[in-house]
Specification:
Number of strands: 11
Radius of gyration: 22 Å
Largest sheet: 6 strands, antiparallel
Low-confidence stretches: none
Distance between the termini: 37 Å
Structural class: mainly beta
Strand content: 35-45%
Helix content: under 10%
Strand order of the largest sheet: 1-4-5-8-9-11
Mean pLDDT: 92
Order of helices and strands: EEEEEEEEEEHE
Number of helices: 1
C-alpha cells in the first residue's frame, strides 16, 4: 500500500488557528504527519509451516516551534521498520496429526523491528535533543518473541 496524505489539520479549540500536521505542526513527541507511507505485507504457508513478513516506510517530517516560541526546527528522518513471524502448526504435521496434544497447537517465533531501526531526530544545528534520543523514543528496539498456543 502507498498512502499519500494531502491534508492533515487539527483544531485544538474553537477560535485558534488549526495546526497543519503536514507542514511543521505536531501533537506529541512523534513528529508531524508523514505525507508518504509505504506498507508491504506478505504471507506464505505450506502445509504445517508458515511465515509472514511486513515492512513500513514513513517519509521524514520537520516540526517547527509554535509562532512566538523559542527553539529550532526538529528534523525527523525517514523510518523503515520490518517484522518477521514464523510458525509451526503441530496438528498439521503428518507425523503428529493423530497425537492429541498436537491438535490445535502452534509454535510461533517472531521478531518485531527486525533491523532494530530507530527514529533519528536532529535539531537545525545537527544535535539530537535529549528528549529525542533514539532509546527514549523506542526503548525496546528489536523484540524477539516465542509463543505456544493450544486451543482447547
Amino acid at each position: 500500500y502507498h498512502t499519500v496524505k494531502f491534508k492533515d489539520r487539527i483544531t485544538i479549540r474553537p477560535g485558534l488557528e488549526p495546526l497543519d500536521l503536514l507542514n511543521g505542526a505536531s501533537i506529541g513527541s512523534g513528529g508531524g504527519t508523514s505525507r508518504h507511507q509505504l506498507d508491504l505485507q506478505t504471507n506464505l504457508t505450506r502445509g504445517w509451516l508458515g511465515g509472514a513478513f511486513s515492512a513500513r516506510w514513513q517519509q521524514g517530517t520537520t516540526v517547527s516551534p509554535l509562532a512566538g516560541a523559542a527553539g529550532q526546527d526538529l528534523i525527523f528522518k525517514d523510518l523503515t521498520t520490518a517484522n518477521l513471524r514464523l510458525f509451526v502448526d503441530f496438528g498439521a504435521m503428518p507425523t503428529l496429526r493423530r497425537t492429541p496434544w498436537a491438535r490445535n497447537a502452534r509454535l510461533t517465533f517472531s521478531i518485531d523491528n527486525l533491523f532494530d531501526a530507530k527514529q533519528q531526530v536532529r535539531a537545525a544545528d545537527g544535535m539530537t535533543p535529549m528528549t529525542y534520543q533514539e532509546d527514549y523514543l523506542d526503548p525496546r528496539g528489536r523484540v524477539f518473541r516465542i509463543a505456544v498456543r493450544k486451543l482447547l
